[in-house]
Specification:
By secondary structure, the protein is of the alpha/beta class. The chain has a single domain, classed as Glycosidases (TIM Barrel). Helix content is 31%, strand content 22%.
Length: 262
């Protein structure tokens, strides 16, 4: 992801060496409803589901062509903190919906800004149409804050979104960032979306044991999008992805019952 702009438990070793295969499928098209398997990394029969994430950097997107190319989910940016609302969010959000692509909103998080205010901005943008996937907090900058301060701010954002939207949010981060800048804080109650550009299996930052989503490239090419786009995969079939979305809502309900509202 750029600045301006599982729950199925899957062994991290399963994840890996298929960036080339998935990139080919996304770039060259296909039926779009077929399951894509990861070869030669753990279980060769383990299927994955291809997706992307976008912001205004991708300019105007032809979502029908994107879906025809095989993309089954997309994370769409709401804002960069509270100061910059993505000017193409509403367009992307509404245009992706009729294609059948599962949508999730993400927010580039600024630890030096008010965490509740950032969460409320995202909540306001999607409260009438929350999408099909849980919202995401994109944690990849410190804002000059300490690891403990960042972890607390993330927890505040997560709790706010969980309470107001009734779904368990996803955390997006990089393995090195989480280790060095967040001191491997334990937020394993949240699904992990890991950003690691490698042809090998991605590194999962402790204390998570597995990834749910993997952003494996920021240089993807895809029909319907001009220029590079971030490529992702979900650890499971499309049916697993649908189950994951339902479970995220169920888990949030259980969590809200055990916690006082913010």
């Amino acid at each position: 992801m750029r600045t301006r702009r599982r729950w199925p438990i899957v062994l991290a070793a399963i994840a890996g060496c298929a960036a080339v295969v998935i990139t080919y499928a996304l770039t060259c098209g296909g039926a779009g409803d077929e399951e894509l398997a990861l070869p030669d990394c753990g279980d060769p029969q383990r299927p994955t589901t291809p997706g992307i994430d976008v912001s205004y950097y991708q300019n105007t997107i032809d979502w029908k062509r994107v879906r025809k190319a095989g993309v089954l989910f997309a994370f769409i940016r709401v804002s960069d903190g509270t100061a910059f609302v993505d000017p193409l969010f509403e367009t992307n959000w509404s245009k992706a919906r009729p294609t059948g692509i599962m949508r999730g909103a993400y927010q580039y998080f600024r630890p030096d800004e008010n965490a509740k205010a950032q969460a409320d901005l995202l909540i306001d943008k999607i409260k009438r149409d929350p999408g099909e996937l849980p919202p995401v907090i994109d944690v990849e900058t410190t804002g000059g804050r300490s690891p403990k301060q960042i972890a607390r701010a993330v927890q505040t954002w997560v709790a706010r979104v969980r309470e107001k939207l009734g779904v368990e949010p996803i955390i997006y981060t990089g393995p090195d960032f989480w280790k060095t800048e967040v001191d491997n804080a334990d937020l394993t109650t949240q699904p992990l979306w890991i950003a690691h550009y490698t042809s090998a299996c991605p590194t999962v930052p402790a204390p998570w044991k597995a990834w749910t989503f993997w952003q494996y490239s920021d240089r993807g090419e895809l029909p319907g999008i001009t220029g590079p786009v971030d490529l992702n995969m979900f650890a499971g079939t499309f049916a697993d992805l649908e189950d994951f979305a339902r479970e995220a809502a169920s888990r949030a309900t259980r969590a809200r019952r055990s916690r006082r509202p913010l």
